[in-house]
Design brief:
It is a single chain. By secondary structure, this protein is α+β, with helices and mostly antiparallel strands. The chain has one domain. Helices cover 25% and strands 30% of the residues. It has 1 helix and 3 strands; from the N terminus they run E-E-E-H. The chain has a 3-stranded antiparallel β-sheet. It is elongated. The N and C termini lie far apart (49 Å). It binds zinc ion. Zinc ion binds next to loops.
Length: 67
């Protein structure tokens, strides 16, 4: 039995240490969008789940189109 309250912890493939959550700015079509992502505290690599990336990019496109 698991509570499901805990998020799965990711490991950096290069360093083998747990990633930490942090705000990262993603540049897209000349604009920057802050997104909370898993990031390696040692080498700074950011892991963007494909699903999240697609969702955020779709939101960004909507924002840009409204301008
Ligand atoms: Zn790393």
């Amino acid at each position: 039995m698991t509570t499901g309250a805990k998020e799965p912890s990711w490991l950096c493939a290069a360093c083998g240490i747990a990633l930490e959550r942090g705000m990262v700015e993603i540049a897209y079509m000349g604009s920057a969008f802050p997104v909370e992502l898993q990031r390696c505290p040692r080498c700074g690599i950011v892991y963007i789940p494909e699903e999240l990336a697609l969702t955020r990019m779709a939101e960004a496109e909507k924002i840009l189109e409204d301008k």
